[in-house]
Write a structure and sequence with these properties.
single chain; globular; mainly alpha
């Protein structure tokens, strides 16, 4: 092959790569859209079964953050934000319909504050989980730890953002102070620690393990990549 032909092939290769990069920047691939649609369906299915929400008179125990974390790791922060929105919308629906006693009581106190508690917090959780995964994946040479960090982040951030907003918007209400009295009228930080209790002990490890294993397996098989 002559020098001119070699240069031509090299230039064409660069053009193909540039076109591919541009296409990726313009929007999601068909595979990404299919995966996003599947995870959206999983969230909606979970929302109306015990897998999504286990209702108690206090905080609901939920595994909804697992699909959100998986999507954020596989497709990035924007996908995580969308799935977080679906999670938040189903949570707000639980409050609206009275399916969740705790959320329903908050809704009766302030529908607007309950909306802010349910939806923006979950959107932020999905987005930040995707960002954390991208940052950790650059440091994780074996491309393993980053998936479990991402899975844990989804559950941990869900707790932090939800409880932080709950304290900010509902701390001075009689309802939340009623819970606080049973704990000995503790400060807001200790209240969060005690109130999360069993929820955190169940949700954080489950999201870390399940989210990490599933996202890495799907990434290796369907996406043919480690990150």
């Amino acid at each position: 092959m002559s020098e001119v032909e070699t240069k031509t092939v090299a230039e064409e290769t660069k053009e193909v790569k540039a076109t591919t990069v541009t296409a990726k920047k313009k929007g999601m691939s068909v595979k990404d859209l299919a995966t996003l649609g599947l995870l959206t369906g999983v969230l909606l299915l979970m929302a109306f079964t015990p897998l999504g929400y286990f209702h108690t008179f206090g905080l609901d125990i939920s595994l909804m953050m697992i699909p959100v974390g998986i999507g954020a790791m596989l497709m990035g922060p924007k996908a995580g934000a969308w799935l977080g929105f679906i999670f938040g919308a189903t949570s707000f629906y639980q409050a609206l319909t009275g399916a969740s006693p705790f959320s329903a009581m908050l809704f009766s106190i302030s529908p607007v504050h309950t909306f802010l508690l349910c939806i923006p917090t979950r959107i932020l959780m999905g987005f930040v989980t995707g960002v954390i995964f991208l940052l950790v994946s650059k440091l994780d040479k074996k491309k393993t730890v980053c998936y479990f960090v991402g899975g844990f982040s989804a559950a941990f951030l869900n707790t932090v953002f939800f409880m932080g907003t709950l304290i900010l918007l509902f701390w001075n209400t009689e309802y939340i102070q009623g819970f606080n009295q049973t704990m000995g009228n503790v400060n807001p930080f200790l209240f969060v620690v005690l109130f999360v209790g069993v929820n955190g002990a169940m949700e954080w490890p489950a999201s870390c393990i399940a989210g990490g294993i599933v996202s890495k397996a799907v990434s290796r098989t369907l996406y043919k990549k480690v990150v």
